[in-house]
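Form 12-C: Joint structure prediction
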Amino acid sequence: MKEQTLLEKVQPVRLENGLTVMLKEIHTAPLVSHWVWYRVGSRDEIPGKTGVSHWVEHMLFKGTPRFPAEELERNISRTGGIWNALTYLDWTTYFETMPVDKIDLALELEADRMTNGSFDPQEVARERTVVISERKGRENSPGFQLKEALRAAAFRVHPYHHEIIGDMADLKTMQRADLYEHYQTYYRPNNALVAVAGDFQTDSMLERIKELYGDLSPGEEIPRRARPEPAQRGEHRLNVEGPGDTTIVEVAYHTPPASDPDFFPLLIMDSLLSGPRGLNLFGGGGVSNKTSRLYRSMVEENEVAIDIHGGLPATIDPFLYSLHFIVHPQTSVDEALAILDEEITRMQETPPAREELQRAMKQAQALFAYGSESITNQAFWLGFAEMFAEYEWVRSYVERLADVAPEDVQRAAMKYLQPQNRIIGTYLPQRNGR
Amino acid sequence: MTSTQPLASLRKSSLPGPDDITRREMENGITLLIRPNFNTLSVTVSGYLMAGSLYEPLPKMGLANFVSSTLMRGTKDHSFQEIYNRLESIGASLSFSGGTHTAGFSGKSLGADLDLLIETIGETLRRPTFPGDHVERVRSQLLTSLDLRAQNTSEMASLAFDEIVYKGHPYQYPEDGTPETASTITRDDLIGFHREHYGPREMVIAVAGAVEPDKALETISNSLGDWHNPDQPAVQTVPPAPPLEKTERRHYTIPDKSQTDIVLGVAGPSRLSPDFYAAKIGNSVLGQFGMMGWIGEAVRNKAGLAYYAYSSVSSSMGPGPWTVSAGVDPDHTEQAIQLIKQEIKRFLDQPVPEEEFADSQSSYIGKLPLALESNAGVAGSLLNIERYQLGLDYFHRYEEMVREVTPQDAFRVANAYLDLQRLGIATAGP
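Section 2 - Result
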């Protein structure tokens, strides 16, 4: 079993102000990747302020009194480094991957903008239209429209019901004070994690992090606003109409959080149904899904779909396992769903063969090896799982997949893949093309 | 430190070079480049051959892409399911793609599984059977992707741009064809195109990752060493793309969309042109550096009009596009185009300030280690070294070449290509 562990243990260090630090030396290239994670995302938003986490993320690129935006941009970009930020359901994260001799700038910048963001009112106003433009760009995509409607139908009570970018109504009305309050509440060392991977010495890096972040004062107790979603009672179906010629279906089942013991059997189940998927955010590439059960059945044998993909995001609270497919033009949505249900029933009636599980494991191992090539990816892994579980979750990922028995997969399929636990969303094109 | 001093310099020992790249020309015309890297567990194999859309007849637009999309659908050795079962069972991947000049492939596996990966590349390139039922399935997939393309404002603006700027030039046509042409391509067309154009001459393969060069050479030689195709035609080149006589504009209407995409620009230099580096670094100032250079600063940061606004020089064997792209609210399209034109004017009126130019040079140099971090990045760069005859010491000379370019060079080159009176301006949206 041991050789299946591709990542070494990393011990989190906790500073007195509550900041968690995760460090991993990798000496294969003269690069360092530095990440700061905040335990806040769209999960922490209430109606009227949806999208605030993402907008605040944008504002932190507008600089601080010490690091005005233009200077910041210039100083990082001229090293050839990459820097960006991501806002998700449960977290917001900022990162820089830079040549080793320039990384100190990233550390200084992140420590500074943890508490000193300017939030200039004029910049807030300008960024409002940028974020609205970002949302409108997404609205151009049928897939986004379907996902947004489906999410809203799946979560009536829990804040996972709205898209991370926020509702247009809130993007038009939120004010600088809303953004700033959010920033002051959540951007605190006791709500943050610093992860660094790359070509450095642990002792001196930890020392430098203490120097820069150690004096930041912790905030009040961080509010957690997520209200639990009651169990769904009965299948929901919805349609979204829009331009185009392509019918798209998304079927989503309520599933447990990443920390739940059922999550790993569900990951294996997903791999068998819709193909392998790794935890790589930065390159590494994937593995195709042509021999997965649903691809074979829906695309090849019965030709009811053009393509199919699945997704089981790792989240703090119960979220969704979704299957997304393009309906073959010569068939109907109902026919396609009937074939999908046949495969789900097969998974529920008969445990998969052990060889299938071993295959899923081999795929997961390969995907980990591919992702390990990127220092940015390795640094991402350090912080990622800490947002909903702990680093051990990523580190022992392959081992835990190996521990899943065929009967566990069957049981998970029986428990979660029930019609009354799902939402079926269909994008119905108002044919205006060819 | 003043800003003209080097801000990034490369540790050459960590970059691929003549010391650790093995280059071999096989008797049948295949060139191999191999760079081992045992810091990783995996290996990437990428390559190309001269079978792009340039070689297809116009009524069969999309044929070359259709062929590359169908190669893995069955061979004389294995069925579609067997091919993918062998690859996916070990977590390996392989895919083919059709470009304008070339057909390309890229595969990845753990180092220990290289034999199977190369064997699969060999059989899919040499012995595809194009099974009839799979041809129809791929056709359905291609037609669906064309339907999705027709709804994509960014892709349709790019197509409209190509129609304006490359009128009468091979770059006018999309590699994936149109619904009309994709519907009429037959299985015999696929077989015929493959028979005529797939062959080892001028083919290049790059291998990067956890493998000894001798081992990779032997495996590739076993799979592809005895491949010959006497029918392979000569390599085709493309003519220059003359500038437009005057600015031309086209709008592609896609009803009910909430954002309009703009693509605006000219035909730029080829990768082989001496103007290439000056264009690239000048363009970095114009629309890449930081949050997308001057264009991003004007359109996104100052005016708040767009989430993305940037410029790019997409050089290849021929005169690739030099464009500015932005996605904007349909009501702000004209304002955004005016702002973009203003920035281009500033770029053409006088050389870029030295400091800004030096920042972009440093950024270019500093990016190299990141681009070469993964095996896929190294393999892709090795292919470029061969394709554009850059030399095995290219990465070692890279910093010097970038630093040699001056703001005056960039100014001259920008004015040689960009002309506000001769732009192609394409928009797609409601």
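Section 3 - Comments
The first helix of chain B runs from residue 63 to 70. The domain at 248-429 of chain B is CATH 3.30.830.10 (Cytochrome Bc1 Complex; Chain A, domain 1).
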